[in-house]
Predict the 3D structure of the following.
Amino acid sequence: MLAYVIRRIAYLVPVLFVLTVVVFTFVEMLPGNIIDTLVGTEGNNDPEVRKILEKEYGLDQPVYVRYVKWLGRALQGDFGNSLVTRRPVTVELMSGIPATVYLALVGISLSMLIAVPLGTIAAVRRNTAIDYTAQVTSLIGISIPEFWFAILCVLFFSLYLGWLPSSGFANPFEDPWASLKFLILPAAAVGFRQAAYTTRLTRSSMLDEMNKEYVDTARSLGLSERKVIFKYTLRNAMIPTITISGLQLINLLGGTVVLESIFAWPGVGRAIFEAIQQRDYPLVQAGVLVLGVIVVVMNLLVDLTYRLLNPRVKLG
Amino acid sequence: MTQIEARRLAELDEVRQPSLAERGSRLMAWMGNAWHELRKSRTASIGAVMLVLLFGACIATPWLATQSPIKQNYRERLQPPSEKHLLGTDRMGRDIYSRLLWGGRRLVTIALLAVTFGLCLGIPYGVLSGYFGGKVDTVAMRFIDGLLAMPGLLFYLLIVTLAREWKLEGIANDLVLVFALGFAFMPEVARLSRASVLAEKQKEYVEASRAIGDGSLAIALRQILPNIVSPLIVNATVRLGYVILIVAALSFLGLGTPPPTPDWGSDLAAARDYMETAPLIAAFPGLAICYTVLAFNLFGDGLRDILDPRLAER
């Protein structure tokens, strides 16, 4: 096991290398450079000044030296200052993380609450009206653009019925009731889409389990159908469902950009999106890198825990 | 096996050159066959019909569209559906029906090109990596892991932002999108082809080919490749739907093609401001995206059932 863990951690190195190179290259590929921006705003294009500034920002050095230096600073959590707010980029990003995690967690919980019962019923009552409804709904769920679904929800629940605010955020610790009202629509938009995937997965893994021999054995021993399903098949079928939901949760951290901007949700995704609009590239660069690293590391942790808890998985 | 047997095995699919008429009737037979196979799965046949309609509309757009998609007419703003404007007009008095058609044609073209590009990059990569194995394979696959770890939407955001900063417009802008989407599809294709190659590599026909002295590359491309096509087709079909969702999401965020180019995502975003007074404007592009993605998903799902008989029994 230890050797396996070490090998998996070693695999992180190339992954993180690709990630950092992509993110670093992004800023390198922007037309013009920071000197243009600085000189431009001062209205003074003196070559002498440019030289001094280039030296100050290290632009006179070759690309790979700059990459290593940038990486060194990034490792210490120093991504420079936001061009818009002048505050450290790290601070800007960190303030968005709780809201994003909050939305992702609630969304995934909602998704599992819908998907697990629905997928199970669909599998048990296979080829019935319930099954077809579940299948069609989940197909529509994975085909509908999430931003359109979100807009339709706003149109119906906020504008037409007036039950919920159309966008915004309140701190759940200060004002739980208001916070809940703000949360419902975005969480439903996240949850519906994820639930569509999870329902399909739960259904197919339930069907897989129900075809296995131990089910026949259990039935031939005279166990009730209810017991066979809830005590045996469902438990086994939940393994892939839980794994995938964990991965969905991780991916949502970098995947709620669109919903966060529709619902004015103060998360990392919206911070990155606004930074793109305001051309605040240090923030964009750091945001993508931080989210990428979080996703990679969390994926590894999930994988390791999964293998630790489930001895049937071969350590490949 | 003896050398003669091996040669026979390897030559089995080398057919004599057919005449044009023969080819025609073979094509008809193949299509009849394909439709017969498709009928086995209801999802696949519904998806196929939806796709035929979609592609038909995309090809016939210049004849189907009744008005210019970009001509503004302020006297006819925000009109409900009528004989002149089949689906009404948007906030600038442009014909929504024509905009939908032209936007769809562009969107579907981008998706098809992107997925094809991803296949062209990923298949050789995966096939060669799996075929050679050993150190080459390890290094090649670590690189793929690195690409797969990149959160998709964020990667596209970076690329689209670059395109904006370089002030790319029209075709150039679309091409950048095509390359980015295709490149992001590449790791998945490479992994899938590699896995299939590893499975196929052990089989007799490959051994036979090697016995008669075919080179590695010839075996990889001529013998193995045709046998790994079916999982790739399913994957590519589902990917087309995903690509369309991503492109629409990017242009919804205002990072797609600049106006006035008809575009489902940005048309939907623009319609948000008129949601209360003219909700239909937002409904049409949304429905169009939904229809397209659903068509690809249905077809892909059904195809998977047909090509994998183990699943079809369900």
